[in-house]
Amino acid sequence: MINQIMRQSLRAILLLTIAVRLYAQAPITVPAGLPDWAFNVPDKVQPASVRPEGIVRAQGSRKEYDAAKIAGNANPPDWFPEEHKPAPSSVQGGPGITMACGSCHLMSGQGHSESADLAGMPAEYLIRQMAYYKAGTRKDDARMGPIAKAISDEDVRQAAEYFAAQKPRTFVKVIESANPPRTFIATAGRHRQLHPDGGTEPIGRRILQIPMNPMATEIRDPHFGFLAYVPPGSIAKGEALVKRGSCALCHGENLKGLGEVPRLAGLQPVYVARQLFDIQYGSSAGKAVALMKGPVAHLTEDDIIAISAYLGSLAPE
């Protein structure tokens, strides 16, 4: 099954490769000494990559969009409006909206590997995180900080309640492999993609996360998630570390959340790793994070990879 998905993904790249100038995005700053694989830093040498053009459609959806009109952050496509309640303008975009939440987190709330999975998260938790971004307690000067400072409290609450109502589903498949397929991180979208030349590469000390369907990911189709390649033995090691750390005391049985404490189960491994590195480095803060700083401070890079792999392998519901 996985080999079939890999072949389909590679075929999609070969058929849809377009030699065009990739859309420029704000530069990414990686904290000193931390691994760039966790921050989706685009490769300096860029093969031609998947870019949608013209009218685009998603499998199983009755809708169609002009690729150019949904390429930015103001007008995210809503491929399956029947799957959720009406979204507020802060999520779906509209007049005066330049950064709609659905553009990065998708209308389903589960997002891509460069953004957080918000589906089913407690509304008060999401509101609190936005307050941290606004105050600078949680730092993201390139994206979330400016958004939090610009958005109204009412829009934050509406968006938080919308995403809290979304039911999460399995959106990532974690695969242990010493030699996963060769990949690169594209400038456009900052997604890791299969390299058009094919082949494999040593996993090393990394998590390599790629779209199951590159074109579907580019057009923000919420029905297609990711494959996350991790070093052999990562899931079992991560399970031991999580149970030793008693994470369930705060995050609930099966790590699916408890009260205002968010779930960890089923989160995308690259995102989890990035958050753990941020807690170690000090760019993520708050009362809950303060409680985590002690245990997280002693984690090695291999520990973080293993914990992230295990959490990603769990069913979110």
Protein described:
- Residues 89-167, 233-315 form the Cytochrome c domain.
- This is C-type cytochrome.
- Keywords: Electron transport, Heme, Iron, Metal-binding, Signal, Transport.
- This protein is an alpha+beta fold and 317 residues long.
- The chain has two domains: 28-41 and 51-164, Cytochrome c-like domain (Cytochrome Bc1 Complex, Chain D, domain 2, Orthogonal Bundle), CATH 1.10.760; 172-313, Cytochrome c-like domain (Cytochrome Bc1 Complex, Chain D, domain 2, Orthogonal Bundle).
- The chain is built from twelve helices and nine strands.
- The protein has helices at 2-16, 89-92, 101-105, 123-135, 144-150, 153-164, 214-218, 234-244, 248-251, 269-281, 287-297, 301-313, and strands at residues 17-18, 49-50, 55-57, 64-66, 172-176, 183-185, 192-194, 208-211, 226-230.
- The strands form four sheets. Strands 5-9-8 form a three-stranded mixed β-sheet. A two-stranded antiparallel ribbon has the order 1-2.
- Strand 6 (183-185) and strand 7 form a beta hairpin.
- The longest helix is centred in the first third of the chain and has 15 residues, at 2-16.
- It is globular.
- It starts with a helix and ends with a helix.
- Mean pLDDT is 87; it is low at 8-27.
